[in-house]
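hey so u asked for the seq, here:
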Amino acid sequence: MTSDLSVAIGRLALKNPVIAGSGEHTMTSRGMRAALAAGAAAVVAKSTNESPAAKRQLDGTDYVLLDSHWRPLPWNFNPPRDAQLLCRSGLVQEAFGPWLIKLAALDAEARQRDAYVIPSLILADLETCAGLAERIERAGLLVLELNIGAPHGDEAAKGTIVLEREAARVRDIVARIRRAVALPLWVKLTGQSEDVAALAAAARDGGADAIVMMGRFMALLPDLDTQAPTLGTAAALGGAWALPLTCRWLALTRRKLGKEFPLIGTNGARDGLDVVRFLLAGASAVELTSAVMTGGFRVIGDTVKQLSVYLAERGQNANDLIGRAADRLQGYADQKQRPGYWSAFVPPEARD
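ran it, structure tokens below
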């Protein structure tokens, strides 16, 4: 049986739920073409904005892969599944006009593959961002991702990258961009919030067509040899460990916003079975970012294939999975009562 991998994000149809997320690997034309050739339904270009300081920040980037014992791993594009990426990053150094012309041409190529190239704006100044969004729409791009959850926002120079955690601000920002453009607007949110679902509701109320959730977490890792911070700074941390955290917020956001509002999962997915997990938690599509950046573009093809096999074995389509686990999520009070069951899970010397 051949399964149908197609999904929809609002009025945008995707041939499968696998999206190449924005990162250094989607900064170049060659990288975006590689992602499309590997089978991605969409590619989100490396983010940009108007800030010269945000562009200069790219020259101060640093990256390290870590194993589960926090030891550095070789950057050989064949990382173990439990590899974790700790990094600081910056924005595209290309001027906005040439960047936009390049993306429009790449999007035209993507259409030949039934796919899309999606520009990503990171907020600095709101009015300037609205003007850039207008230029993107005039250039004929079909989707815009607005990233207001970049993890580096608190560490970057003031005014270069905005990280929003307040619902009222999220609503106002999205509403301003919505007034500027009519094209589908995907809003990427931070995971560094006490209530990501509330931020998602605010973005929807402002006019977002879909929510991308959620950005990586800022972290500090002391190095045991130098006794200084790894990379010298705090940095964004992501890995497979983040998947259950993202899935929880996907499920809670689905409950808050309703089953029809599209959610896009990111942060934690490493393969096709992880895409399944995200779909079951309520996502309609999944952005793979650090997995592709550290493992190469073959990760995309392998992910699509593994997803297809999973669906075929169960006689299901991709749409059949969306929200199935989220809609069965129960509270503690709903669980079967088993007095004394806990005692089997404590060390023997602690038992009565």
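Residues 7-49+95-215+242-332 form a domain with the TIM Barrel fold (CATH 3.20.20.70). The CA atoms of residues 17 and 285 lie 4 Å apart.
lmk if thats what u needed
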